[in-house]
Here is the input.
Amino acid sequence: MGSANHLDFLLYGAFPYIAMVLLLVVTIQRYRQRAYTYSTLSSQFLENRQHFWGSVPFHYGILFVLLGHFVAFLVPRSILWWNSHPARLYILEITALIGGLLSLIGFVSLVLRRGSNNRLRAVTTPSDWILSVMLLVQIATGLGVAVFYGWGSSWFASTLAPYLWSLVKLNPDVAAVVPMPWLVKAHILGAFALVAFFPFTRLVHILVIPNMYLWRRTQVVRWYGTNQGRVEHRKRSAQDQQQR
Ligand code: HEM
Here is the structure.
């Protein structure tokens, strides 16, 4: 375990398992008890234009970046082989950076949209706001790591992929994480915090892909939030109707 202290072991050796157990247990329990809550609770029909320009870059950007993380975790040697030519290393790093920037711009736009529209604020829960902050921090720390600690795709493959595999093999080896800069540590911790929080949020919609959104008839989504939220929402809808 090298020079890891108790806190390091707790954060990078034990917390990942707590997060995974929470993810598994709560996800299954929530599906059994409230399967109908497995939805994005889309607010697209309340406001469509800004939604499109936020949601599309965010989803394409983050899916691309996470796919990159996954490949570097699964086949780290292929990434090191690819990066052995400087031109290919630049291509990978720049493409990943573009993916990260797209996801940041898209997500900031989605958060601003929620904050600036009364109807959207009325249907936004505290869990949505917490999730937004966590995702923003995660994307920002990821971009920070990419910008300040160059060639992350290579040292991820050679140092962090083995750490992640040690977790999978139930033999956590946190020695690789301990000497890392605080930004990298914050990024790793943020990832496991997101895993732990995942089953309590609307992110569970990811698990029902492929889903019927693409071909089923449109459906009306109702929120059963706070009473004040409902009153506010009705007031806004009535005002909108009068203006038409
Ligand atoms: C919820 C999970 C995660 C999200 C949403 C996320 C997001 C991001 C984003 C947006 C970037 C910037 C894009 C780039 O230029 O590569 C990034 C980079 C990075 N992430 Fe993550 N990340 C997650 C999990 C992790 C984990 C678990 C690790 C390591 C154990 C990790 C290590 C890194 C590293 C080393 C970079 C820099 C890559 C480079 O310079 O090319 N990430 N991440």
Q: What stands out?
A: The chain has one domain: 6-243.
